[in-house]
Fold Putative aminotransferase YhxA.
Amino acid sequence: MSYVHPMWHHSVLAPEHAPAPVVLERAEGVYLWDREGNRYIDGLASFGACIVGHGRPELAQAAYDQMSSGAHLAPVFGCTNDVSRRLAERLLALTGHSGGSVRFATSGSEAVEAAFRIALNYHLNRGDTERRIILATEGSYHGTTVATLAAAGRGENRHFMRDLDDMFVRLPATPQQEEAASAEFLEALRSTIERVGPHRIAAFVAEPIPVSFGIRIPHHDHWRKVKELLHEHGILYIADEVLNGFGRTGELFAEQHFGVTGDLITMSKGLSSGYFPISACVASAAVTAAFDEYGERALRHMGTYSAHAAGCAVAMRTIDIIEDEALVENARIQGARVGAGLTALAAEFPGRVHPPTGLGLFWTVVLNPDGDRQLAREVLAECRARGMITQANGNVLYFYLPLVVTAEEVDESLVILSESFRAVLK
């Protein structure tokens, strides 16, 4: 079957992955409905963005109210808008970066690009003209722009990223929880810094809890030790919270599990719960101090829709909902229920299904390969037939529900997963 319409779809919607693409028409809470009236649990929270659930009238009202009084109010060429100032102040308070600055954009990819540019300009403004290299980890994911794809260095993109190879140096993948694995990573980081030369390295970028090939939760001291080593050599730490952030992992930001704060923190998705395209890069006071508001040391970085007034209003209201409804706590409570259910399910298939990994409402399950069969994709198809939409990559199944999910809805989703696993692995 061909695509539903001429939009250039993501490859996971290709016919071999989804023989009959679902055309979604409406959504409410944790549920989606297609144009035939079939209901699905949103087991991917709309690509990780839908933190506060679908169909929130207060978010539509926030957008309407701001659009009615001034939709865009572009903060460029001597102009600004007050709602972006208030949102920036709120993000600085939430991240512990009082005295810092915020650069707004419209997607997670742009936020990470902004972090790269800020890091490079930070060193340039301080006279470190040779610091042009950014360290990243193998198998990571930081966006869809040329630079963010090059940072990840994933095999499917490398053939057209060669011109940026000199800008990015990749380390091994973020290690799992064992302290010994963390020590090995730290040694690899130390030797890489020595080999490349600390005077040439501007920053290191990583997701606190990476997910691309299955969630990896490092040792509780891992990121603290990484940041200490980076700072010994004047290297900035960029924490990519685009997917991790706004309660998904059971803390407002995933780095809080590890007691660290990035010098630069990128965020998107949950910032507006997917109701408006908005992202941000938060910079510490120390980073901000290297820039002037105007003149040669200013950050010349802007976009037509950066700090869009309506988007900022939606983001402000989203944060209100997260706080007022204690959604971070709910992520911990319901996440424990999800984890217990997935662990019991994996135990039914020893040797074929690995124990799940995750925190809060952020989980993956890895299935062992079975010849040429893509078992996770087969489970994905069974889930959809039973009324749940989620995602698979190779033999990794992704499962993250909106943070408004109830215990009953968690149980409903676990029943669908259990039936789907049994249908494929019986």
Q: What stands out?
A: DSSP finds 13 helices and 15 strands in the chain. The chain has a mean pLDDT of 91.
